[in-house]
Structures are given as C-alpha cells and as structure tokens.
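Re: beginner question about structure tokens

> Can someone show what the tokenized structure looks like for a real chain? I only ever see the sequence side.

Sure, here's an example I had lying around. Input first:
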Amino acid sequence: VQLQASGGGLVQTGGSLRLSCAASGRTFSSLAMGWFRQAPGKEREFVAAISWSGGDTYYADSVKARFTISRDNAKNTVYLQMDSLKLGDTAVYYCAAKSWGVGVELHEYDYWGQGTLVTVSS
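And the corresponding structure tokens:
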C-alpha cells in the first residue's frame, strides 16, 4: 500500500486546514486508516482513526471536537479536517493504514505515508 499525504501548510491559530491521504496498491475499503503526528523533539502520537466503513472513529483527547476524520472509499482517500488550530498542533502529520480493525497504537499500523507539515503560528 502506498500512501500520499497532502494539505499541510502554514495557518494562524484558530484557523483550519484539511489534510488528505490518497492510497493505492490495495483495496482501500479493506483498510482501517489513521492519522498520527510528530512535533519537533517529541514522539509520534495518535491523532485520529477510522474504520474501513467509516462507521467508527476515534480521536486523541487533545483534538476531540476540533478535528474530524473521514474517508471516501470511492476516491481511495482519507481526510483530516482540522479546525480551531492551536500552536500545539504544529507537527508533521502522517497517515497510516492497517488491515482488520481500527487501532490507536502506532505499532498496529502496517503502512505509512511520508508526512505533511502543519505549522500553526500566532
């Protein structure tokens, strides 16, 4: 599975961005998808995840009610809508894919994209 993340950029606090992750190489609808992020000097952390059908979603407490994960299986793409962005959201964001059930742990994911940088400024 190849994953290509895009949509990162520079945004002011309180602003919004939508990240996209396009998948290829395997039936997308069979994969659970996740978004993770890594801030400078910190470990990579879970942000959000979505089941293969889109029926189940999970969020880190730090982004709950501000971020929304969704997917379009017809377009082989998963999205992360990020609203009310904070300085602490600055990080490289990675999309990831896994077989079977949705997960919130890094080690559960088999495939990773290259990351897209989100910078939130004051």
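Each token stands for a local structural state, so reading them left to right follows the chain. The longest strand covers residues 17-24.
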